[in-house]
Amino acid sequence: MKRRLFVLIIPLLLMLSGCSGDPVQDDLLNYVNKEMKDVGKLESTAVSAYEGASGTNYQDDQTMYDTLMNDVIPNYSEFVKELESVKIETDEVREIHEIYIEGANIQFNAFAKIKQALENQDADLIQEANDMLADTRTHIRDYQTKLNKLAKEHDVEIKN
After folding, report:
1. What is the bridge-based pairing of β-strands 14-15 and 158-159?
2. Residue 62, Cβ neighbours under 10 Å: how many?
3. Rg of the chain's alpha carbons, rounded to an integer?
4. What is the pLDDT of residues 19-40, one digit of tens each?
5. Which of 32, 72, 116, 131 has the highest count of CB atoms within 10 angstroms of its CB?
């Protein structure tokens, strides 16, 4: 549990907008500026709570467990639900969004596994959860790379 969770949260992304005849560009603008704006806040709340009780901030198992039960899991569950309901019009944006959903589901399951590990005092489950969190980071990096590439291809500027 010493490993600190590093999640790349969708930063406030500001995109240069303009009406175009490019449906992918229009979908990207809607996706980042509207659909993902509030969703990212839920993720940030959950991840901040987790980071506040893990890694160098770890105090004890009970504090971690309470944080998972009261803050992390409920907020992250709502985040995943909202993420899965994001409206997307084009296949290109949908394909990239699916990477994010997959990573989020892995992370949610990692949080649930940490909860189970604490309940059972099982260090092996903690290691499995840490491996899942590493897998999540890979998904999020892939998502961000592909999102940036698609934005560039469609003359959309993403500012972090």
Report:
1. antiparallel
2. 9
3. 17
4. 558 999 999 999 998 999 889 8
5. 72
